[in-house]
Amino acid sequence: MPSIQETLYSALASDAVLTALVDDRIYPGQIPDDETPSPWLMYQVPEANPFDDLDGGSDTQLQIEFHALADSYAEAKAIVDAVSAVLHAYTGGQISRAFWNGTSEESTELGYHHVARFDVWGTSATVIAQPGANARITTGLNSIELRAGAHVLTLDAGGLLLDGTPVGAGGASVGNLDGGTASSVYGGLEPIDGGGA
Fold first, then answer.
1. Low-confidence ranges of the chain (pLDDT < 70)
2. What is the pLDDT of residue 32?
3. What is the C-alpha to C-alpha distance for residues 153 and 162, in angstroms, rounded to an integer?
4. Which of 4, 63, 137, 178 could disulfide-pair with 122, CB 3.0 to 4.6 Å?
5. What Pfam families does the record tag this protein with (predicted)?
């Protein structure tokens, strides 16, 4: 499942305005040792805390800093402005909400350094992977997807899908899996012979 930081990276790296400014120089955590040209954008998570919301959900609240370095003041400002345009009030993937929390600016020997700070809330789940496991859980806004081998079970506002096919009401079977036992959507366990329901 993509982490909150991976979700942020995807949102930033897919923004045309930001990538026109920094190209692919968007770095989580630290700048590579061999990265000398600017401009670039680097982001860090100086603090993450558990957060229980009023509806009983469990979230993580992160404070995230986006550092931009550029040769000119205008370029550094344009980078943090682009980050703010993408992320302020952002929701998607593991992120339930993100809000701008301030900006600072300084001039250094390396160039103009601007920092945009955001408070980001995201859902987190504890997943324990077993050795050799080939499965994935992905959550999105109002959806969850479970992948196991070649099969995908999706639950969202539109209903339940197995491998892209709606699983209907009235005790429809999950069927079409390779051997073993599966639970029907509305009933008990039934054997799976690989031939479907």
1. 1-2, 35-36, 52-58, 124-129, 139-141, 169-197
2. 81
3. 5
4. 4
5. Tail_completion_gp17 (PF11367)
* 102 φ, ψ (degrees, to nearest 5): 135, 160
Q: Rounded distance, CA 82 to CA 74, Å?
A: 12
Structure tokens given for 86:
């993408």
SS3 content of the chain, % helix, strand, coil (to 5): 15, 45, 40
Cα distance between residue 81 and residue 78, in whole Å: 5
Three-state secondary structure string covering 104-162: EEEEECCEEEEEEEEEEEEECCCCCCCCCCCEEEEEECCEEEEEECCEEEEEECCEEEE
Other beta carbons within 10 angstroms of residue 176's beta carbon come to 15
Sequence-distant (6+) residues with CB within 8 A of 65 are 43, 44, 46, 115, 116, 117, 118
The model's pTM is 0.62
